[in-house]
């Protein structure tokens, strides 16, 4: 990997020099919330330091579990002490075993409370109540497969058309394997106004409609080029979004049942759909999720919290075979909701071993930042001299402490994993060679997952905790966070919604740290 990475890095460096920028992080972060590599480094360091005690305690629990299992399996063999250290190759095994023992959760049994149609109905109810919207299933309109469903979205108060969304939820041959939500912006350069989507606009080009009130269009030719005259259309184009997943289909009398993690993913991706639908900037370029890369996941990560809330889980769940008397509205029977005891276990599971898992994400974020921040020889020598003059200094996760002269990426990752991830990498393995985020649009930006998650927790804890279905707060969220799209800086959006500067404390509180 080192030779390959060196070639890629050299190519990127030449490109950046043409733009007058010495390093990738400085270039890409200039237009992100974090603004600079130093801010990213400080953020990751603060998180790592705050998690250190909890991560050490969690690792001790896994070692204790392995020691107990070794004694039960091997006993005392010729007086030899079994190896009770945790390695990358058995980490996941002992994490799963620890969770099973501590929480006693049967996720297959829990899935019986999450039939797909029940989850969709509950999810729609929550989003409609929270954001002041109304979803209507449309029977007409062109679709790319018979399994695909189409919905119209209107404002619940004014009946104003907000947009459309598709649900393409089941696997089939040739379909991409991962879940996502997207719109079709930039597939066509000069989209026209969408007025009759269900009947006549549902062509291939109709999927390219933007979610903004005004776009730059050509003066007559659909193939707009930089040399053609352009003008602004002030008529709003309603957005079209699609949520794509690969959930199992119903089989006989047994409906499609979702694991809780699939419910969380569904809720998250539908949050992106709502971001597309609710955004109302002037220009299409700033519509929907076209926000800073280190903020784009925050709205949907915030909405994931509903999947652990007792009231929301009662709305999302309903056993596919067991029924209970309806408490209100004339009696009758309704599907049995998820029991309170099970909800409490799911809430505890969310916090289980969270420090180790988060430290692993910090390792990958540092790895990404460091590879894209290769220093000059002078800086390396200054760093080495500083280390020699500060022998008593404690280990830290600052980039200046882990930079390596020859860019041995495997050793770099191993070093970061030892001092931050706590569990050593397996010798001879090269995880970095398959770490696609390094070159797939998240170059020097992998930290963004953690960054957005921290501020998503801040939004939820400050506004929705204890009142997850409060329509007034949901209205503020829709208009202050979703409506601007990328037309305002994410930092300003957060400050306006929170009424203060964003803080990190809520992340630790919500995860029991």
TrEMBL record:
Residues 175-188, 375-384 have a biased composition (Basic and acidic residues). GO terms for biological process: peptide metabolic process; proteolysis. The keyword Metal-binding applies. Binds 1 zinc ion. Keywords: Hydrolase, Metal-binding, Metalloprotease, Protease, Zinc. The keyword GTP-binding does not apply. Residues 208-230 have a biased composition (Polar residues). Gene3D superfamilies: 1.10.1370.40. Residues 23-385, 407-509 form the Peptidase M3A/M3B catalytic domain. Its cofactor is Zn(2+). Residues 175-194, 204-231, 375-399 are annotated as: Disordered. Residues 385-397 have a biased composition (Basic residues). GO terms for molecular function: metal ion binding; metalloendopeptidase activity. Belongs to the peptidase M3 family. This is Peptidase M3A/M3B catalytic domain-containing protein. The lineage of its organism: Eukaryota, Rhodophyta, Bangiophyceae, Cyanidiales, Cyanidiaceae.
